[in-house]
Amino acid sequence: MNFEKWQHYWRASVFQFFNKEDQAIQEYRLALLSAPDFARAPERAAFIYANRGDFKSAAASFRDVLAIEPDNAVIHFNLGFAYDKTGDIPEAIVAFQDATQLNAQLDRAWYGLGICHAKLGDHAEAAKALHEAATLQPMNPHAWYALGMANHHLNQPERVTEVIMHLHRFDPIMTRQLIHETNRSDLTHLVADLLV
């Protein structure tokens, strides 16, 4: 058993508990140095960086995890999220795609992939990915809203109508927003009780 690894790891956990994040990160680094296959250490450091809003450093730590666990779909998702936050959308797309290839049931990776494609104006790819996200999470109003917007940008009013009708079943406020954003005044009767 590698006692040095665990000594650094537990010391890091204590520092983290007491909000001494710089010391915690340093101990997580030392834990990884003492055991280069110890993925938990850079993963914990990555979450500290992400909580701070330092997504560039978080991405670097998530890459360290993936060097050890290349088939970890959740870490690929986290890396995509970090890249998205730093504005590196092409790299985010690659990371989200890797996550969906490793775990096709990871709805949040499909959602991230769709949002990133939409940010680049690739609404056809956005719609494909968002359809997967919405199918996996049929009660996720954000996925349905984004899917509606992608279909709107693709000039597919019948699909926008389908999305609005589905969304109306469980989230009338998001439905109203989607109706407004897509200029679908023909459907305002669905949310007439919410209109001022």
Q: So what's the CATH class of the domain at 1-65?
A: Mainly Alpha
Average residue pLDDT: 96
Binned strand content: under 5%
What series of H and E elements makes up the topology? HHHHHHHHHHH
Task: Please give the count of helices.
Answer: 11
State the major sheet.
Answer: none
What's the architecture of the domain at 1-65, going by CATH? Alpha Horseshoe
CATH superfamily of the domain at 1-65: Tetratricopeptide repeat domain
**Strand segment count:** 0
Query: Regions with pLDDT < 50 over 5+ consecutive residues?
Result: none
Helix content bin: over 70%
**CATH domain fold name of the domain at 1-65:** Serine Threonine Protein Phosphatase 5, Tetratricopeptide repeat
Query: What oligomerization state is this entry in?
Result: single chain
Structural class: mainly alpha
How far apart are the first and last residues' alpha carbons, in Å? 66 Å
Global Rg: 21 Å
Form type: elongated
